[in-house]
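hiii so um. not sure if this is the right channel but i have a protein structure encoded as tokens and i wanna go backwards to a sequence. like what aa goes where. can anyone help
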């Protein structure tokens, strides 16, 4: 399976995982000049979750792909998205690690 197809499958699994936990998917694969947001979801307290999906054979392989540089780009991408959409919701940045071992949701990752 090609890398993009694996990524799409991981994102589909991630969306289903979040839905089962009560989040509503707002948008997916949002691009701007700074980067991409994999999943944007809203929880029951009206907090936006900007979710970075990483997949690999193991948890360790996936988690180490979330670098400081990636988080900085993601933060700029989020700020541009919020300004463009004129949104003022509270938000957090989450990671979904999709591996052969299962799915791990890490909420509110920060620099």
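sure thing!! here u go:
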């Amino acid at each position: 399976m090609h890398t993009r197809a694996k990524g799409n499958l991981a994102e589909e699994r991630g969306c289903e995982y979040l839905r089962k936990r009560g989040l509503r998917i707002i948008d997916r694969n949002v691009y701007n000049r700074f980067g991409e947001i994999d999943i944007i979801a809203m929880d029951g307290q009206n907090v936006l979750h900007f979710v970075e999906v990483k997949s690999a054979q193991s948890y360790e392989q996936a988690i180490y792909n979330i670098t400081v540089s990636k988080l900085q780009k993601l933060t700029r991408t989020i700020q541009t998205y919020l300004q463009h959409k004129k949104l003022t919701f509270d938000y957090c940045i989450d990671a979904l690690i999709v591996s052969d071992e299962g799915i791990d949701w890490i909420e509110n990752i920060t620099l």
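oh and Residues 3-20 form the longest helix (18 residues).
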